[in-house]
Amino acid sequence: xxxxxxxxxxxxxxxxxxxxxxxxxxxxxxxxxxxxxxxxxxxxxxxxxxxxxxxxxxxxxxxxxxxxxxxxxxxxxxxxxxxxxxxxxxxxxxxxxxxxxxxxxxxxxxxxxxxxxxxxxxxxxxxxxxxxxxxxxxxxxxxxxxxxxxxxxxxxxxxxxxxxxxxxxxxxxxxxxxxxxxxxxxxxxxxxxxxxxxxxxxxxxxxxxxxxxxxxxxxxxxxxxxxxxxxxxxxxxx
Amino acid sequence: xxxxxxxxxxxxxxxxxxxxxxxxxxxxxxxxxxxxxxxxxxxxxxxxxxxxxxxxxxxxxxxxxxxxxxxxxxxxxxxxxxxxxxxxxxxxxxxxxxxxxxxxxxxxxxxxxxxxxxxxxxxxxxxxxxxxxxxxxxxxxxxxxxxxxxxxxxxxxxxxxxxxxxxxxxxxxxxxxxxxxxxxxxxxxxxxxxxxxxxxxxxxxxxxxxxxxxxxxxxxxxxxxxxxxxxxxxxxxxxxxxxxxxxxxxxxxxxxxxxxxxxxxxxxxxxxxxxxxxxxxxxxxxxxxxxxxxxxxxxxxxxxxxxxxxxxxxxxxxxxxxxxxxxxxxxxxxxxxxxxxxxxx
Lengths: 238, 345
What we know:
The complex is a heterodimer.
Chain A: H1 4-12, E1 16-17, E2 22-23, H2 24-27, E3 30-35, E4 41-45, H3 54-69, E5 77-81, H4 87-96, H5 99-104, H6 113-138, H7 159-171, H8 195-223
Parallel strand pairs in A: 4-5
Antiparallel strand pairs in A: 1-2, 3-4
Chain B: E1 2-4, E2 7-9, E3 12-16, H1 29-45, H2 54-58, H3 61-71, E4 77-80, H4 96-105, E5 110-112, H5 121-135, E6 139-143, H6 159-171, E7 175-179, H7 195-203, E8 208-212, H8 219-228, E9 232-235, H9 242-245, H10 247-260, E10 266-267, H11 277-286, H12 301-315
Parallel strand pairs in B: 3-4, 4-5, 6-7, 7-8, 8-9, 9-10
Antiparallel strand pairs in B: 1-2
């Protein structure tokens, strides 16, 4: 049986930065985590700059509160965002359970669902490109146009493929070995003539995501040089 | 001018600032947060030998700027792209008087662009008229993430923004530099969304839209828009220093830009004083796309010359010695081609 502290940390690892498509725990965005014997939890988050997009910041902080609250033993859950230009607004909104619109008032008109969906699509596109480009690099003789015919079952059993399957699952796309790898967010494939340009587009998406992740990690290290990412020790009791 | 291996490069630094972020100019905590964010960029992406102290970073002054750019930095001509940020700094962030006076004193070396905010309504339009006459404006720098009372930002396709672009057209302000970077609101949208550039570039085909930081966090969206709008250009501010910290990532950015929008629409800048041009120019001339990134063609010397200066010189009618000029290339293979049906790719 994991300690409650580990359970809380594991729950937080399900929260991803939508932009970077990586867990906030891996990114070092979890600054501190305290679990009391009574089951109260306090978690502080931090971001690479004071001016990181406030809607994304809110999204991650509210997701963190949700996953912690969903554990069956937690009582009072407090999530706070540190050192952000909108820390006060976001922390007050989270404490009050005000929701996104309640938190930002007149500035927020829509929900964040569309934004989340956009980034799930991008994450899928990038994961797909990583798999296909890996095939191309392994066998440069293979023509780009033929990639439109590759099936999930043709991919090696590795982390890159596993990541693609997770992304497909998030979008509700099929994951059987006989399904095409190269599909858009609705699951449609591409004609051979469209494959090269679609692959190029997917590549630029992947480069954006990878680049942002490098940049954000680097900035976080520069901003908090004395505070490395929080990683719970095996068997630590808190 | 930078010269290496008997080849000369005409250098235009297309995005520079003369800022004042000293505590006495900070209006509130956000003024400090803003310059601290810049300083973290600077520290994180500079070679160790080029890192300034925090004190130096807060304010440089004209003399230091002239030395860093023109004595040490190989720059032939530089263009001020000032951010106002009046909600964060008493006298604003970019120093209008100091920078414009410097440009008046060195017209062969400096061009002063100013800014506007469409939320200033009619009064702002009058102001823009006056500013155009006073500074002889050829371009403006727009920072859509600027705070303004209760508003935390605006969009290029807002109706009032259109009034300002119509006036730009009338006043001969042809070059619209747009910052696409952190804190862009409104909130509900993707913070770095470049879709508004698409609309405005289609509606004002006689204006140039230079997307600074080449819309980096959304490089793919930017490239897609730029392929379809021939008046959209990529500014390399903030992308350049990756040449040192992340050379392979930098290679991919350049590879993508050359592929999608071509060699004639990319502009070098140091984003001074975020970084200084000397090491960036040297590194870019020595730079090559690694061979194992086989999806990109190698970058040629002529392409480097265009990016380092000829492209911006052409846009701003900056005289270039005849022997250094180069003809334009054809449109890239992926130019406007009705491929919008691939948008879901």
